[in-house]
Amino acid sequence: MKKKHGRHRRKKSKKTSTVTEDEPKHLKNAPHTFVIHRGLPSSMVVAISRDFRHMMEPFTASALKERKSNRIKDFVHLSGFFHVSHMCLFSLSQHTLSLKVARLPKGPTLTFKVHQFTLARDIISATKKQYLDEDTFKNAPLVILNSFSGEGKHLKLMATTFQNMFAAINLTTVKLSSLKRCVLLSYNPVSKLIDLRHYTVSVVPVNINKGVKKIVTRNIPNLSKFDDIADFVEKGHLLSDSEFDDEESHVILPQTLKKGNLEDNKSSLRLHEIGPRLTFQLIKIEDDLMTGEVLYHDYISKDSLEIEELRKKRAEKRRLKEARKQKQEENKVKKDADKAEHKAKTSSSTTEGPSVTDYQKKLLKDAADAVADESDEDDRKYYKEEIGEKPDEELFDGQHKSRKRPFIPKGFKSKLHPAKKPKLDKNRDEDRDNDHRNNKKMNKKGKFGGEKNRKFNNNNKKSMNFKSKLSPRNKFQKKNKK
């Protein structure tokens, strides 16, 4: 096929349609999250932050683009517009990987040390079957907390923070078909470690023949080995079933679901891990956003006196900061007022014209009088004495002004007497060329480059030869010859 020659037409860019409709209240009030990463560059940290962001869907910025120039303040300023309530920050240092969970916009902030993590792609690749649908991430996951009911305010704060990160579920109005994922957080009081797991939830009917179950719950099975579908149903007990049904997982459904799960019938719940995995430990809790008073620390403990001193120092810093801020605002207002005043002065001076002092007016007047004293009578007398006839009246009628330029003070500019124009660059170049030529001529005829110099150099050479003849070595040679 021959290629068609011709101009390529540019594709028209599609204009994005602006959404004018407001979101419903239950979507606005739902907790939204930002998941970002900071610190040393690492592809594994970027991958775990993406998996964590994928776990927090749909109420998260899944397509958030980060730059090195972005600061935490930038995300805090955007949080109000996008109804963001929490921010999860993965930070990698030379020693550890930490996870910070902050409540926007004013804290508190929980700092965790990440001991182990596994990416979602590694977990999915290790499983034989993948239990992921297109509708899996359309709804928020169900949060399950285990062993967070111990003593200590930090445990209660952790539990409330994890619960408020995900959307609340109303048990009376919820649809069971929307609960397709769950997030499990388990706390170990001995090791103080928290294990995070992410699962998909599937429901399978119980007390049904295996052949019928496969027809109901899955796609059409392979019937090539059977003569009739009745044989497939009757010989269902011979089919392999790798999944084991535990009696503890059997529940009675209050609603009818798909794939043979009927209301008021028994069904078994099955969990399939889809990742990521995280094992982390609480290190400290801060009162403000990434800063402030330390409410809890796992390693460091301080007395009441030390805590009081730190509070006083923090209050003093806050007071100085507010004073600086107030002073900056006052200086800004003063600067704006000075600018407006200067602008008003300059605009009035340009409309009225350039101001002329009394001294300059006097100099201009003297210059004008000096020019006016020169009359045309001297020219008429000179013409009569030289030629012997009176000049015509038309000859000197137009000469009321002299060609002589009046005296103007140095640096004075006005509309009547503008300043002298500077020389053009061409004139400067010509002057330089002339100076260069004159220097060449001087070198040819002058003291240092002409014929006199040549004679002077020859005389110097003769004197040097004469000195070399009278050297002590030559004298010694002459004595030996004698």
TrEMBL record:
Q: Work out whether the entry's keyword set contains Heme.
A: no
**Ranges of compositional bias, category Basic residues:** 1-15, 401-421, 438-447, 470-482
Q: Name one GO cellular component term.
A: preribosome, large subunit precursor
One example of the protein's molecular function in GO is: rRNA binding
Chain spans, region Disordered: 1-28, 318-482
Write out the biased-composition intervals (Low complexity): 456-469
Ranges of Polar residues composition bias in the record: 346-358
Q: Which InterPro entries match?
A: Brix, PPAN-like
Tell me which PANTHER family the record gives.
PETER PAN-RELATED, SUPPRESSOR OF SWI4 1 HOMOLOG
Q: What is this protein called?
A: Putative rna-binding protein
What lineage does the source organism belong to?
Eukaryota, Metazoa, Ecdysozoa, Arthropoda, Hexapoda
